[in-house]
Design brief:
The chain is α/β, with parallel strands linked by helices. The protein is built from eight helices and ten strands. The chain has helices at 12-36, 53-62, 75-86, 125-135, 160-175, 182-192, 215-230, 236-250; strands at 43-47, 67-72, 93-97, 110-116, 136-149, 154-156, 196-203, 206-207, 256-258, 261-268. The strands form two sheets. It has a seven-stranded mixed beta sheet with strand order 3-2-1-4-5-10-7, sandwiched between helices.
């Protein structure tokens, strides 16, 4: 991997997967932002913006009088964001190529900050939380979606192949310095960092193959298995067994899938 690459890469397939992921989770993000009071004229930090799917939604919310500061370490992702904003009048979006572990955040007094599956991947999440707090004005809101029990990801009927895959994913995650269940830690660190938690709720879904959300785990398995094979953490035979098992599961309308458990937190500085 290059210096600013990710465990799942930054290639076109991953950009497409992240776009699908945002479409699946968009309604939940919009609901959380509304309850946090994100509105026109505000300045919002998009912490770990990726290719900018959430950035564009936030830009529409804050409008031309507001601002969205997208912070991302991958130049490939930032180029995608810039391509998407270049043909639109979105002067309120500013993008910064920064490493969330190593670099300081822009000196702003933001009204809000948003992070989804970001703290789980950085090596110093507690230090990042401190930096986010310092970038918020008094009364600023922080909204996060992070896993707190990734191992809830299960198929019904049981699938040994998926359960093995989840264990390998979590092991690989931690080998890269991240923590898949970081939501538990955030809930503890926020008060210690001077935040008051205003809302905290779990998001766990039980879905069927016919549900739109099914495309989210399917896309992750499709790309994640190959990435783990490339990294030498999953054998090609095991990857094929998982893909075959998930395909069979998706062919039965009676199959159920429990999604990885996400903790939504809204906190005020």
């Amino acid at each position: 991997m290059t210096e600013r690459d990710y465990i799942l890469g930054t290639h076109d397939v991953e950009v497409e997967r992240l776009a699908l992921q945002h479409r699946v989770w968009r309604s939940r993000a919009l609901d959380a932002w509304a309850r946090a009071g994100f509105t026109a004229g505000q300045t919002i930090l998009d912490v770990g913006s990726g290719p900018g799917e959430a950035t564009l939604d936030l830009a529409e919310i804050v409008g031309p009088e507001g601002g969205v500061i997208a912070i991302e370490r991958s130049r490939r992702f930032l180029e995608t964001l810039r391509d998407r904003t270049s043909g639109r009048d979105l002067r309120q979006v500013r993008a910064f190529e920064l490493d969330l572990d190593d670099d300081d955040l822009p000196a702003v007094a933001a009204d809000g900050a948003w992070a989804r599956w970001v703290f789980a991947f950085v090596k110093r999440p507690r230090a990042l939380l401190q930096k986010v707090g310092e970038a918020l004005r008094p009364g600023g809101r922080f909204v996060s979606h992070e896993y707190f029990d990734y191992a809830t990801w299960r198929l019904i009927p049981r699938s040994a192949e998926l359960e093995d895959f989840v264990r390998i994913v979590m092991t690989s995650w931690r080998l890269e310095g991240g923590e898949p269940d970081i939501g538990r830690d955030l809930a503890m660190w926020l008060p210690e960092a001077g935040f008051e938690i205003q809302s905290i709720r779990p998001i766990v879904e039980v879905i069927r193959p016919s549900d739109f959300m099914w495309q989210w785990p399917k896309a992750f398995i499709d790309s994640g298995t190959q990435r783990l094979v490339d990294l030498g953490r999953l054998s090609p035979n095991d990857a094929k067994a998982l893909l075959d098992a998930f395909t069979r599961a998706g062919e039965s309308p009676d199959t159920l899938l429990v999604t990885p458990a996400v903790l939504e937190i809204i906190a005020v500085r």
